[in-house]
Amino acid sequence: MTDQSLSPSPVVVVTGANGLVGSRVCTALVDRGLRVRAVVRRAGAAPAGPGVEERVGEFHDPSFAASVVAGADAVVTTVHPMGSDRAAQHRIGVEGTPVIARAARDAGVARLVHVSTAAVYDRSPGAGDVDESATLVGDDGGDYPVTKRDTDAALARVDGLTRILVRPPAILGAGDSSVWNTLRPAAMRDDEEARRAAPDQSFPWVHVDDLVTLIADLAAGRVGVAEDPASGPVEGGCTAVNVAADPARLRDYYETVTGALGVEPVWQDTPAWTGRLLSERARKWGWSPKVDLDGALAEIAEGLHASR
Predict the structure, then answer these.
(1) β-bridge partners, 40
(2) 261 partner at 20 to 30 Å CA-CA among 72, 201, 227, 301?
(3) Global pTM?
């Protein structure tokens, strides 16, 4: 009889393992007893520690992708070159992400978790509340939303494994590469234009730690497959899931940042989306956020005060 205690732990491949989300996913997976192959482009960039094996290469290179997913149980993809030109975003996201997805399928990997974005939805003024069946952004929606939308569509065409598209809104959480805790506040400090906002516009958000909890649970198989997406990811299908915390307005975020920086927001009376990003599906899968709005905003303010 085989001693199950001697069986090797499941293996999860994580792309973008040095990023705000990817690095935390690696840690969360190890905490759940899994082994991680952390994919990075530079040697020494992956999180260090027991249970994490760094793999250096381009995940969209077919040979490298095939080698890194061999024998793995799940793959988590977190990479999209946000801020690059549209051609680069298309090449890495739309064309590149399906490369590792096909390699995972061909290697017999059961599950792929892709970090998408709620920016794929049409959130123009009057659009109303947004769930996973909502209208997607049009071709004029901007480089990042459109290429993320098209990456999701490309993954939907990769049959043969269970694919889960996790769609977070603004990701709050400390880190040098954090858009909302670090990079955008720096722009607001230096440029009055970056302080302009419609105060009542919806500001859907999630804390990175809560986001990572769902991603890690999905990759670890703690959320079981189902025939109905209301109960879990559809086995062998491609299922989207929104992940958002308490409702908020741009006023909440902008007043926190400008107050910590000692500058004034510039309010604009312009039409804006005032709906909600609905995440009932994630909650039915067993997820619930632990970080509330006050806690997330306080973390931002503390970080900005400390950096002044």
Answers:
(1) 56
(2) 201
(3) 0.96
